[in-house]
Amino acid sequence: PPLESVFNLNEFEVIASKILPEKVYAYYACSADDEVSYRQNHHSYQKIYFRPKILVDVTDIDLTTEMFGRKFKFPFYVSATALCGLGNPEGGEVSIVKACAHEEFCIPQMISTFSSNSLEDIVAAKSNSAQEQWFQLYVNGDRTITKDLILKAEKLGVNALFVTVDAAQPGNRERDLRFKFSNSDKKKGPNVMKQGQTANGTSGALSKLIDTALTWKDIENFKIYTNLPIVLKGVQRVDDIIKAAEIGCSGVVLSNHGGRQLDFSVPPVEVLAEAMPTLRSRGLDKNFNVFIDGGIRRGTDVLKALCLGATGVGIASPFLYANSLYGTEGVEKAFDLLVKELILSMRLLGVTDISQLNPDLLDLRGLYDR
Ligand code: FNR
Q1: What is the mean pLDDT of the chain?
Q2: Are the CB atoms for 96 and 89 separated by under 8 Å?
Q3: What's 288's DSSP letter?
Q4: First CA to last CA across the chain, in angstroms?
Q5: Probe target for ligand 1 pocket from 81, 165, 173, with the most ligand atoms within 8 Å of CB
């Protein structure tokens, strides 16, 4: 279908489910066990309502957002997805860079350790110095490989390191397990995948490259040899957020990996609502980045997370599908749809500036009804 027929982010997945090769769609769409967390991630946003303000002049809307203490045009970023080359063999991650770097957008892009294109090529494709790229790290059992990777990313000029901490082992993703990851997939596979790795499921093949023995000590060690800000991606408890701040991390991503890891892990927006009062009382709502991802599909979802106190939000699958179906143009269209929804929803909410968003604009009474 022509790109003009796409009216919202959800529709990219609907089209992808009909058009992408079965095996690719299975890997992209799979989540854990009965996929309850996957569904609840989005559903939780649907339990939060707005309490809009009236009679505010909403002619000019400013979406400028501070992340890492720096100003960005918009409050969202592209979250990491492995293997963009499966769905878009010619473009891979590079065609996402082009959309992110477009001067109208300047959207930060998180690059997966398991990218199809090399990190060098992804960084080289950046045509706009104002665009940030963040490197997502899966920690290898061999720490020298990990150390080299971090140092390479820093040298190439990425702006932050996001260490994924919710994936000691891939979740039980049955849709994906039905297909074999073969040697031919390896060609479109991550640049870090050197040896012949075949397995049941794409996630299974990748899992051999992730260490089950990762602990807090490792995070502290990374700080010894990199100056990159470190963010832990996949934090799901208030005490772990606090611990991350205490050991000197620059932030966390509240995330359950899109429901792909532990099924029945709490939807991130519920963790955010629970955590924010504690974080505020400790001053961690100011100089500490509290990102969130999982199930964010609408401008209203973004605003709800920001009202609760998120620094910025990550979105992964819709951009992955947009890139697989329509390449750079598709990703730009997805950005454009989201920005338009944000402006419209802010107007109707009666706010003109991201900094005006606060919990008083929300009705959270339904949030904890399951
Ligand atoms: C992911 N995600 C992910 N996360 C990560 O830290 N490293 C990775 O390589 C990947 N790979 C990946 C592949 C695919 C196909 C998906 C759908 C997701 C998780 C991703 O960054 C994000 O946390 C979740 O997908 C939640 O966001 P959405 O998809 O609900 O917007």
Answers
A1: 93
A2: no
A3: S
A4: 37
A5: 81
